Amino acid sequence: MDHDLIIRGGTIVDGSGTTPYVGDVAISGDTITHIGEISGNATEEIDAQGHIVTPGFVDLHTHLDAQIGWDPMMTPVSWHGVTTALLGNCGVTFAPCKPEDREFLAGMMETVEDIPKDAILNGLPWDWESYGGYLDAVEKLQPVVNVGGLVGHCALRFYVMGERSVEEQPTSEELEQLVAVAEQSVAEGALGFSTSRFLGHYLPDGRHVPGTHAESEELLAIAKGVGEQGGLMQGVMNFATNLETEMQLLGDQARAGARVLFSAGTGADSRFSDLLQQRIGAMRDEEGLDINAVSIPRSGGYVSSIHNKFFLRSPGWNAFYEKSLAEKLSTLHNADAFAALLNEAKQATQERGDKLNPIFERLFWMGDAETPNYVQGEEASLTRMAAAANEHPVETWMRMVRDSEGRTCFTYRMFNPNLKHLQELITTDWALPGLGDAGAHVGQIMDSGWATFVLSYWHRDAGVYSLQEAVRRITAAPARILNLQDRGTLAQGMKADLNVIDLESLGERMPEFAHDFPGGAGRYVQKAKGYKATICNGLKVLEDDELLGTRAGKVIRSSDRADG
Fold this sequence. Notes:
With 564 residues, the chain is α/β, with parallel strands linked by helices. The protein folds into two domains: 57-301 and 415-485, TIM Barrel; 306-408, no CATH class. It has 17 helices and 25 strands. Strands 1, 2, 3, 4, 5, 18, 23, 24 and 25 form a nine-stranded mixed beta sheet that branches. Strands 9-10-11-12-13-17 form a six-stranded parallel beta sheet. A three-stranded parallel beta sheet has the order 6-7-8. The two termini are 34 Å apart. The mean pLDDT is 95.
């Protein structure tokens, strides 16, 4: 046979931003060997007529560091066209790590990212100390799609400074060692460095995670060392209390020679996003600094359903949360038990209405269709739906959950609550859609279908992105930020990471709750529809929306990049 695989007759959207065209793609081994009109034969062919053919998607922000140990299929992102996922964001990683510090890092990941500590300790081999050793361990897990990693500030600081890393600044000798270990980690394969300055990230004892209050001198020294090796500096910033300082820090890290990536979002009004666009735009346009952001491309945040705790804490409700699904439904179908829970909710609202009422206003029904509706207007808020039914908001929530036998879901619009402001942000030349947080907050949040949403909503339904621009922003653009030279576009000689997609039917499915973590711990999952095939390194890993069990991914290391 001339080729291993030919994808025939699809509309090729190659990731570069150029106009789509109809053609064939030939693959041999893990490489694209030809694009255009192909007359040869192949061991396997995929009929892509009426479908689009794209590069595999690149997810710049995940926390699959732990989950990959027991779920090398990397769900949910592998259901949504992602063929390369970046681990190690927000400063919380498992390497470098001395043997005696494993429990500390696992406990930190549990409190920051809501991943069970026992699952972390028991689900990973923990047979490494250096970052390169960690990547070796991940490679042995044989993930379904590609993974790359960032070395985290929290682990790096604790490795060098121990307990002092939490609240103190490094000595000059320790600073030299921090830079040296960061450089060593990149030399061993890390694609860069991550940190968190967000004041909502805590250790189990209530203190902020190591690095939260690091001085600029430390981060700039690391940025210089990482940047010299072509590495990325990723951060979660403390814009809420130190806007000017944080803006300056972003610019200074880029001036030190590193590419910079930070998490961005918009508020209920446009003041912050307008300022962000002005300042970042100026640093890029006037100084040529390589500063980029990633933002969840919808109003993201918590999922509220029968499966998880959310807005009420009282004896009756706490007991309700601990019941099995069948017991919860039985409780809601019992008139007396229903009334008792509702009375507790009404009492809590009277006592804490200033906290609860804003939550009710930002909880939006996802609808009752196969595909969740993330863009409904104010009429779908729990507050408005309750008013229309002349009910208390919690009564409406309880009734809808009961009548749907537990299938009803609400989404809490915590991030990017205003779609107009979000559109303005993600159409800048520096803010990319992403930030799905896969692997983190698994019992609370389900935003891992972000790439599917970009194509199905921002392109197909809203027309904000052209098809070629939507694809570029989730393929070539994030690949460039990771400095990957052989992925992100469809061209001869590139690695064969591709999707074949039925754009008209593409969409996320309704979130579901699964108890498939070690020890039976639960999490939200979300499948997709419209993916005819996903191919990673030349092997088909998904067909007709279902994973095949093929584990074709590789660990992408800094040494794999064309610039070395």
